[in-house]
Recover the amino acids of this structure.
């Protein structure tokens, strides 16, 4: 399930970033579709 701004607000100084893949520690790319998702969403500190 992809989060929308109306569902979850980011704390002050952070923003939500959603990507179709993440890179694991061993360098392997894990695509969201492999896990049944549209995207991986995570918080990133705004500089």
């Amino acid at each position: 399930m992809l989060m929308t701004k109306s569902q979850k607000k980011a704390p002050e100084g952070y923003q939500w970033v959603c990507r179709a893949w993440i890179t694991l520690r061993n360098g392997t790319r894990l695509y969201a579709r492999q896990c049944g998702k549209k995207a991986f969403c995570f918080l990133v500190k705004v500089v």
Notes: The beta strands are 14-19, 21-23, 29-31, 40-45. The chain has a mean pLDDT of 89. The longest strand covers residues 14-19. The CA atoms of residues 8 and 21 lie 21 Å apart.
